[in-house]
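ok so I'm stuck.
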Amino acid sequence: MTAELVRGQNHPLSQARLEVRVSAGRPIVAGATLSDEQGRVRGVEWVAHPGAPTLPGLEVSKQAAADHRLAFDLDALPGTVHRVSVLLALPAGVGGPVRFGAVAAPFVAVTGLDGVEVASYTITGLDTESAVVALELYRRQGVWKVRAVGQGYAGGLAELLTDQGLSEARQLAGSINEAVAQGLARSVSAPPPRTADADRSRQAAASAPGPDQPYAAPQGAPGTVPARSPYDAPGPQGATVPQTGYPGGPAQPDPSAVTQPSAPTAGPVDYSHPGRQAAAPPPPAPTAPPAAPGQPAQPVAGDATGWSMEERLYNQVWGMFEDLARTTAAYRSAVDFADSRMEQELDKVLSDPRSRIGGQGDAAREAAQAKRAGLVDQARAALDRDLAQLAAEAEVVEPALPAAYASWDNPVWHGYRVPMEIPMALRLGDLRLPESENLSIPMLVRLPLERGLWIDSGRAGLDDPLTDSDELRRLAMDTAVAHAARLLAVYPAGEFTVHVIDPAGSGASCLAPLVRSGVLDAPPAAGAAGVGEVLARLTQRVDLVQMAVRGGVADSLPPDLDTAEQLLIVNDFPHGFDDRAVTQLRYLADEGPAVGVHLMMVADREDATAYGPLLDPLWRSLLRLTPVPDDHLTDPWVGHAWTYEPALVPPGSQVLQQVLSQVAAARRSWNR
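replied:
not stuck anymore, here's the structure
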């Protein structure tokens, strides 16, 4: 049984060969230090980090990643070592977050080599700290134990290593950050040029993890990487897992699959559609005539392989996402190289004291800066060329998208009809990078959903300190309603049911479109009694379906059981929830998706801090979305921080009411 530790708690270790698995949601640095009986690190040779990842008895990751696996053989450690500290730090100087308070709480787990958890710890309560001692493995009277530490340092690795008695702490911290930057720079190669006749086979990955990521395709470094997506969800252990839809598609959504960015490999990636791998898909649809010499190829909607236009468009959107990730990674690598080369040239010239006298030093500095500017300009020109091609492709693809993939302002919604079959995927918003502010890629998740959604109504991580809390809560509920309406609209009549829990009635105005249209089977549940009734009913449904499936007697389900996919929207959590209700909610989040019961939480995580780490597994199992643009989604390939923007109905538009009225009419006709 896994021991869920809290800060300061320890647990005995019965095995000598272990793994420490880390899941953080964003790329972080993982390392370890060895200490003697007094808790002092005797030298830099007692520190394992990306620049020196291997020491006797342990090995750590070679670069920053959202998920890590650190290997330990406690019997192989030197006899003078009595304590091993597991360190986590945010990469410095790469443009990401600079404090742990702005990211999701890191999760660490000690497991055996078979993957079975021995102990786990979620590091909560961090704010300005940029480095933290997560765990200690220590020897006491000949027995090894693990202790949850969670000691953070606002001064970063330098302060942390200094506190452990290392005299060269500042120099070592600098070399670690340099090794991490170099690792990121060489993790992705420049994308090959895209030609009109190039094979654009971009199909969703069939692997387990997926994106509750935007797509259900690869989720590794751009180019040739394992099929997953930046939306792959983290699983129970905090690993990236395939999701239902985006390029990488958790997956992925399960955070438990601990993975690290894969180095590019030769050969094309197989993005074949799940369940259709027995035969090769048909070739891409006819493409535009070849472009004139020297001119870029003219983009065409559906220019990807697939069995239907829907699948081709899905794969094409995934390919656009991959291309944007790759070309941006190449640009950032080029800038890093230019910076590194300039520093090396300046160090070489200015290391001679004689060159610092007169104008020789100034001339060397100007020459180095000019070379850097030339390299950066060249890289930017290549990036702008690729962005222009992607923008041209987006202009022809967006109008051709089916309703499930289209934004709410797409004309396709004005011709909406209730579908006869479930689509491949669903659009939850748009993604973009800082280098491509004017180019957004649709964020698609595969259907049926493989993980629930958490619409964050809090201010944690938002850059604007003046953001109004009440306005954020309203926007979060509007976002939830828009997502629920889209799910109802893309499922055939009678195959999707929405339940709402609104204990205090605070979301009544936002929920009005769902209530007035009649698409809900029952009014939103209010008060503790309403919360208990809805949770008990859905929990019973999960139990019955699980027993029927496991027993192979699905035909024996009660005739009045609603076999449609179920979505539970929970507003204003944890108001109105007692301990029993919280336990039922966690059960639905863990077991529900496998039997068609999905969860959509509209909540501020800070409001639930009274429960301590109890709810951390719940939050980790959900895909976090925000009601305002925010760069909280990170792809596991190269660690890009993607800015997510929700798919909301344009102000003043009546499209939502028109669509819901048709859904309600189809439901009434189906129930007759």
